[in-house]
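# nightly structure sweep
# worker-07 picked up a monomer target from the shared queue
# config: single-sequence mode, recycle default, output format = structure tokens
# input follows
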Amino acid sequence: MKKQNLASEKLIEKFDNQLRDILAAELRSVRYAKTKIMNHLGIHKHAHAV
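# output follows
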């Protein structure tokens, strides 16, 4: 039974790490897109102001 628990813990840990990597990548791409949009809007607004 103890061996089973250890295997489960390792599996959970592996899943946890994969999930963390996926979430980190998602966050980076969202931040990148947001920055890109903000810059675009900023340039757009600036162009209208002139």
